[in-house]
Amino acid sequence: MPQYLLLIYQPTDNPPSPEVLAAMAPRWDAFTENLQKAGAFVAGDALERPDTATTVRERDGQTQFTDGPFAETKEYLAGYYLVDCRDLDTALEHAAHMPNIAFGSVEVRPIWDRTGPMAAGRQQVAQA
Fold this sequence. Notes:
Radius of gyration: 18 Å
Low-confidence stretches: none
Strand order of the largest sheet: 2-5-1-6
Helix content: 25-40%
Number of helices: 3
CATH superfamily: Dimeric alpha+beta barrel
Distance between the termini: 31 Å
Strand content: 25-35%
Mean pLDDT: 88
Number of strands: 6
């Protein structure tokens, strides 16, 4: 069954207050429970704020570690769910019920099927 990543974004300009987030906790619990009951839940978790991140990259043969996110954005990645769904429409339906969509956003992205047609094409390019 195809898998999709539901990427949860929160606004950086006007993030919800700790009180609002605490009040939303039961809604998140219910959302997770509904995914489990539907047999779609694979994994999921909340992430710490972007200012706790470290970005790692290599430039000119040197590994660089930089505090914070790679780029400034209007939203930050706050968490994720990995779900098994029969198709994109089902994943989108789950995303439409996430508690944060009234003020944040959810990006639904398919997990790359390494056995599908795109994988074969990429392997041929890599061998050329």
